[in-house]
Design a protein that fits this description.
This protein is α/β, with parallel strands linked by helices. It has 13 helices and 13 strands.
């Protein structure tokens, strides 16, 4: 009887959403491992170098049969797929639910159709800390009841529950990582951060004032995308310890947004010259979600204890890297 080839002995990881902001960082992290890696995205993916054997597949995961193709034969599936319109699109665009919730349903259907035998495949899902809704207290640690405030968070929570239900059935070993406010410079061309930190960095570099919908004391748990990518890599190393639950990730600091924005303004001034742009409070727009006015600090002790992961990049360094990355991108455009 022939033994498996060394190539076939490598685990196959299907990375869904590999061309996105977080996805490109996870792709870079996993490319440093001796694995087979299938990078799946709508658009072509720039493949990093490393010991991994990486293939790229351009697929619309809402199309019939696309998810089954994407996860075929995979030992691990990492789902970073999210509708391109963000949380606002989920309020009115039916396509948002097809991506935010429907792709997970299709992943689980494809994995359930596999022949039985062997260990159940691992599925790691990128959820959001905001699925909780308005935090009842600070810090949050994952033990709080969920009361999502937006359609986006309801869709993300529904996808997470589908995954955890499938885990209880034994079809998969599902791990839901609830992400904090992730930010950073781009890890690949076109994989830009559309979050608040990078938004403010771009404004400051353009010489525009930075506005807040509050007095600046509202907190967010800010973590650089490189540290989040390591969390996903760590999660696939500990599937049995993590499966069947959701795990909030965070640095545990509760960074005041006013302080963060003023730091961004100073850093941007160093790149463009002149004084820092002003940081000012303004009236919030109609329909702003209640979660925007409540602080978020995340206690990730459970995940740290189970895996040994913790953020490594200090906030000042992470902010400096982010602003410098945007400044470089602007010069090159």
């Amino acid at each position: 009887m022939l033994s498996a080839s060394p190539e076939r002995a490598r685990p196959l990881i299907a990375l869904l959403g590999a061309s996105g902001f977080v996805g490109s960082w996870v792709l870079r992290e996993l490319s440093a491992r001796p694995v087979r890696l299938r990078a799946v995205a709508r658009r072509p993916v720039r493949l990093p170098s490393g010991p991994a054997r990486v293939e790229s597949r351009s697929l619309d995961l809402t199309a019939p049969g696309a998810v089954a193709e994407a996860v075929a034969g995979a030992d691990v599936v990492i789902s970073l797929v999210v509708h391109s319109g963000g949380w606002r699109a989920a309020e009115h665009d039916p396509a948002a639910r097809a991506v935010n919730e429907g792709v997970m349903a299709s992943v689980l259907a494809a994995l359930r159709d596999r022949p039985s035998g062997g260990a159940a495949p691992v599925v790691v899902y990128a959820g959001a800390a905001s699925q909780l809704g308005v935090p009842p207290c600070e810090p949050i640690d994952g033990g709080e009841p969920d009361h999502p405030e937006t359609a986006y968070d309801r869709q993300k929570l529904a996808a997470e529950r589908l995954l955890l239900d499938a885990t209880r059935e034994g079809a998969v070993r599902g791990v839901a990582l609830r992400l904090p406010t992730v930010f950073g410079e781009s890890a690949a061309p076109g994989a830009d951060d559309r979050g608040v930190v990078s938004f403010m960095a771009r404004r400051a570099l353009a010489g525009q004032r930075l506005t807040m919908w509050h007095d600046g004391t509202v907190t967010r748990d800010l973590v650089h995308a490189e540290d989040i990518a390591r969390a996903f890599a760590t999660a696939i190393d500990h599937p049995d310890a993590l499966s069947g639950a959701h795990w909030p990730l965070g640095a545990g600091r509760g960074d005041r947004l006013g302080d963060v924005f003023r730091t961004i303004a100073r850093l941007a001034a160093g790149h463009r010259g002149g004084p820092p742009v002003p940081v000012v409070p303004v009236e919030p727009p109609a329909g702003a979600p209640a979660t925007d006015f409540h602080g978020v600090t995340i206690d990730a002790t459970r995940f740290r204890t189970a895996t040994g992961w913790s953020p490594r990049i200090p906030l000042p360094d992470a902010l400096a890297r982010t602003v410098a990355g945007h400044a470089t991108a602007e010069k090159g455009s």
